[in-house]
Amino acid sequence: MDDRVGEVLSSSTVACTAQAPASELAPDLGAFVVTVSPPEALGVVTAVRVAGFDSHRRPLAYGLPPDELERQQPQLRELLVTEFDLVLLGACELDGWRQRLPARPPRLHSFVRLATAAEVRTITAQPDWLRTLAAAEPRDDVLAAAIRAAAAARPGDRQHLVQTGRALARLWADDYERLQALLRRVQP
Predict the structure, then answer these.
(1) Straight-line distance from the first to the last Cα atom of the chain, in angstroms, rounded to the nearest whole number
(2) CA–CA separation, 79 vs 96, rounded Å?
């Protein structure tokens, strides 16, 4: 599978953690991704982290620029692992994607791929997905990144952005400052 960006390491009906095959293949914060084995689930990346492969040994600073470090210490790439977390927003059912959690967690070791633009448009057609992400941590930055990704799947569709803005205004009607800060983060 050439389009995989990860493999599920832990899973629940609301969230997953996956490991990227390489650091440069990890999806961006706010990216929409799909777990590809039954049950198929669609989610948004809420965190990406790189750490040492062995949790008992922390990586050390070498004081070298990245190119030189790669040349002098090529084995370091094998000692690091990149993981990402995702919050699930939808499940693939017989008639297509639905904005609801899967009945069962995605299978461990199933692959994760980036969602297609059509899948993103389907799962974000109604603004209900914003409420799910608004509860995720770190809330506002993830939500802003996901809104930008959803807008990228709809080039030139200003109406969708207006609908999203109205839904956010309803969510944070009592917190104008937070709403304004979030809307500033959404702007490209």
Answers:
(1) 32
(2) 40
